[in-house]
Amino acid sequence: MSVKISTPDISDKYPELKFLNIQFKSFGTKQSFFGEILTATCPDDNSKVKEILSKQGERRVLIVDGQASFKVALMGDMIAKQAVKNNWAGVIINGCVRDVEILNSLNLGIFALGAVPRKSEKLDRGSLRDDIRIGDSQISSGQWAYADLNGVIISDCELDLP
After folding, report:
1. CB of 33 within 8 A of CB of 151?
2. What is the CATH T-level fold of the domain 33-146, as seen in this structure?
3. What percentage of the chain exceeds 70 in pLDDT?
């Protein structure tokens, strides 16, 4: 089931909700997506991204704190294909991706700061499900993300949308 959302409409209806004050680029064919959040911290190492996206996503959204690094890509085509296969709604990366030509053909919401060609090391650095901060926003697993080309809204609970 694919429900199209509008973050401006959500913001109008729920003006108290916070949004990520970061300008993301959209990769992937899903330009709007939402779901319960799972967080990951990945300091120039995509081991945790690979680990979690290889498991069932149940329409959740993975939000990755890559510390705004442009040193390496935290997701490429192989990991993104696993996310599609495992039913993730989307991935939001405060960092970079690669294999853009392939990502742009996948039925997955993918927001990232940009793209770089270099793959990351696999040293199992980072963590899953810890609170993260992106821009001015504190984000926790279990919250909900609503994303489209206008931005990303964070809610403590699932919203009642038409």
Report:
1. no
2. Glucose Oxidase; domain 1 (3.50.30)
3. 99
